[in-house]
Amino acid sequence: MNNKKTISFLIFSLLVIAAYAQNPVFTHVFTADPSPHVWPNDDRLWVYTSHDEPGSNNHYGMTGYHCFSTTDLVNWTDHGRILHLENVDWAESHAWALDAAYYRGKYYLIYCMKEAGIGLFRTGIARSDVPEGPFTDLGYVKGVEFGQDPALYIDEDGTPYLFWGHDRKCFAAELNADLMSIKPETYVDLTPQLTHVFEGPWVHKYKGKYFLTYPGLTPRRWPEKMFYAVADKPLGPYEFKGCFIDDFEGQSGTNHGGTVTYKGKDIMFYHSAWLSGGLSETRCVMADYINYDEEGNIIPIVPSKAGLGNAKRTKTTLKLEAENGFAAGGELYNVNVDTWIEGYSGKGYITNFDNPYDHVSILAQVAKPAKYRFIVSYASPDGDSNHDVLINSRQYREFKFPQSETFREIDFGIVELKAGDNLVRILRSNWKPSEGYFALDYIKLEQVFENEELTK
Ligand code: FUB
Q1: What pLDDT digit, counting tens, does each position of 111-156 carry?
Q2: pLDDT: which is higher, 432 or 377
Q3: Which residues lie closer than 8 Å to 402 by C-beta, 6 or more apart?
Q4: For residue 277, what pLDDT is reported?
Q5: Res 448: pLDDT
Q6: What is the DSSP secondary-structure string of 120-167?
Q7: Average pLDDT, the chain
Q8: What is the pLDDT of residues 8-30, one digit of tens each?
Q9: Model's pTM, two decimal places?
Q10: How far apart are CA 440 and CA 454, in angstroms?
């Protein structure tokens, strides 16, 4: 971008954020490739995303994934890092697009990374007992070559279908029941049916038809637009229908996303570069309603500032479970996970801060330097407890946790985070050592808008 373009884009970005906008949906962290879902017996909408590093402006250094949930489309929870290259033995780089699925009582992440030593994309599968992860890698799907941009569609009869696509190609196959290999006899090359296809397939059903949406390139021309095709069966044949998200101001070179029906409304999640202030490949998740005409064609979406509603700005709180440790980018140093006190959230809480330096470190990833309200959930049944808190090695002292038999949240006021990775470390206090049982459940970092107008 030249200077003039950069300045006008910066002004455009500020206007976008200053309005009572809901786009971009997440304004505290760079996110891309959204995969939206509603899970059985759960009233939340879930969005799983890849993650762009602040200032990166390319996709080569992508390393991990996040997930978000909401019940009102305004207040969102960022559950933090749910899977990272470090947690995947077989991979070396390129944590690119992903999908998520609920299958036979477990939650799955279906993602792509480059295989170590070979450098080819593989489609990885990771599993969790809870939708917010963190997810444990199970290996990669056998039978999938060049497995970039996977999407797992579980049909109403429970049959799992995998779609994937890269570099102007798109393939699909039925998966075996363990999700770890394709049924070779079902493999199809969908490329000739999907005009302009480049990558990123996603399947949803509308009125009995299978809709395959995908980012594509008209001949020799970036950026990507979103196209779709329709079929009577998941593996096709697909009939090409056309473009439904054309070029728009502030878009990124890529586009990618999927649809979900939440509380009776159909929503398209995709990404743009609206948050980055001119870096077209440092992306952010967007959402707009998706509508169909009487013939069942998608009515083209024009990305809007209002997004899913213009009454309130979206606001996100990071909720980071202390017990997730290394799997979420943190560390548990000489402390234990316990479940003795009831009422904790997640899989347990952290206790046994017995010696100096015993600590828990929790990773918080954000896009830009900003202030956050710092809240901690804890229990301290034996009396008041004192702990030191360091954020990126800056010491915040005198964190006194009043006696509490049960878990409760305490608001410690405003802290500052830097762009990128922040480590929040909580350790036994040296200034006033505590005795007795202390349980640390989770921390919250709540977005603060300096200009109150923004929260109207
Ligand atoms: O986010 C990295 C890559 O960019 C994805 O895998 C592609 O679909 C494109 O969005």
Answers
A1: 999 999 999 999 999 999 999 999 999 999 999 989 999 999 999 9
A2: 377
A3: 380, 384, 410
A4: 83
A5: 94
A6: -EEEEEEEESSTT---EEEEE-BT-SS--S-EEEE-TTS-EEEEEEET
A7: 92
A8: 544 444 444 444 579 999 999 99
A9: 0.94
A10: 32
pLDDT of residue 432: 72
**Any idea where the domains of the chain sit in the sequence?**
24-313, 318-447
More confident call, 242 vs 17: 242
Query: % helix / strand / coil in the chain, to the nearest 5?
Result: 10, 50, 45
Tokens (6 digits) for 34: 């959204």
Q: How far is the CA of 291 from the centre of ligand 1 (A)?
A: 25
Which is higher by pLDDT, 454 or 123?
123
Residues with CB under 6 A from ligand 1: 32-33, 50, 59, 96-97, 148-149, 199-200, 254, 256
State the Cα–Cα distance between residues 163 and 173, nearest whole angstrom: 7
CATH of 318-447, one of 2.40.50.140, 2.60.120.260, 1.20.1250.20, 3.40.50.300: 2.60.120.260
3-state secondary structure of 2: coil
Q: Which atom of ligand 1 is nearest to the CA of 148?
A: 6
94 near 62, Cβ under 8 Å?
Answer: yes
Residue 347 and residue 101: Cα distance in Å, rounded?
A: 20
Residues 6+ apart with CB under 8 A from 197: 165, 168, 169, 170, 190, 191, 214, 216, 227
pLDDT of residue 273: 96
Measured over the CA atoms of residue 23, residue 26, residue 28 and residue 32, the dihedral's sign is: negative
| Nearest atom (ligand 1) to Cα of 33 | 10
317 CA → ligand 1 middle, Å? 25
Q: Which fold has domain 24-313?
A: Tachylectin-2; Chain A (2.115.10)
